[in-house]
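Please check both lines for our workbook:

___
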Amino acid sequence: MDRDRLTALLEAERAVHHDRNPGSRAQFAGARHLLTGVPMTWMANWAGPFPLALAAARGARVTDVDGHTYVDFALGDTGAMAGHSPAPVVDAVRRRIDTLGGITAMLPSEDAEWVATELTRRFGPTQWSFALSATDANRWALRLARLVTGRPKVLVFSYCYHGSVDETFVVAGPGGTTRSRPGNVAPAVDPATTTVAVEFNDLDAVARALATGEIAVVLTEPALTNIGIVLPDDGFLEGLRSLCDRTGTMLMIDETHTVSAGPGGCTAAWGLDPDIVTMGKSIAGGIPIGAFGLRGDVAEQVLARVADQDADIVDVGGIGGTLAGNALSMAAARATLGEVLTPGAFARMDALCADLTRRAEDTVARHGMPWTVTRLGARSEYRFCSPAPRNGSESAAADDPDLDEYLHLAMSNRGVLLTPFHNMVLMCPETTGADVDLHAELFEDAVARLAG
């Protein structure tokens, strides 16, 4: 690839972004009391020198303060996979607020059992508890895994992503060592104290780590996602389950992003058998939520420890929070699971994403780019390497910030949003064939200009 051509194209797209978005630019410049100029630091990481500012969003569309409307394939980095403000969720939230009242009361609502029953049907584990994010769900479930096994450490995979859980900001170092992930902010302890990191798709490394007898739980996504989609090798997840069984280690599956694979995520689509499942973001239609589910026998062991007064899961045990499981989140989750993210919706989303992926692959091949396009149900990503990476380190090595920014700006300057941080496109129930057509047209144009 001609890097000089890329630099020129990127500068041109930055100029377009600057000139067509004066309202967004002014809002960002005027944010004097917001750390990094945005209410949450990630929001500053969109392509270009300033982020677009939100005015409105509905379905698969976002409108910014300058009046530009975009086809949204970012969808809140999965948080809005049900689409923006889906009508059943809006109705449920209004009913909870206007008719019933009570957003947070520290009292259970009837919606909670319905949601837990539905998650059991979709994912398998029979006992559920709720949080306000997948980060909290992961953090709390890790504590319970250590409680039940009596072991101190967690095993994760290099460049995994499980929210801002301290134990997971690690990568595999040389000679089987574990080190803090570059950029990790002031960890309370050396993460190698709590965690062992190995490479995804390396069962031999997993076996060596579990043989020490110190690992309580293997925490993994079924496929890595936040570093680009890295799919498991044939037999890898089955091998994980077997190794965990052999060593008395728990297997914890984080479906926060991989729920794109279908109504029950990869757990149902691929016939997985986890001890614990965690999730968040998408299952409440944009209202904050997280959840973790325990297999029945795991839940019994937790409750036995509580009965023996060995564990406090109400106060100092760090399992829960005042707003967790609130009535508003439960109402939103019931509407989302019952009426929006249905099997029929997933089938349409999957078909659209298959078409988008095929057309992106055709573009990449036609222009001789050494890239790969990988799909996971309703989610697809392009990665700047070929063949596709098999682990997080290989995927991280394919990062190209200038190329990322060029593609994102080339799309957003013409009406399509991709997910910041990586090149993810995601379908929602309101995504249309015309949206996929527009993506194909703009992606072809961007790659053709780059190829020259």
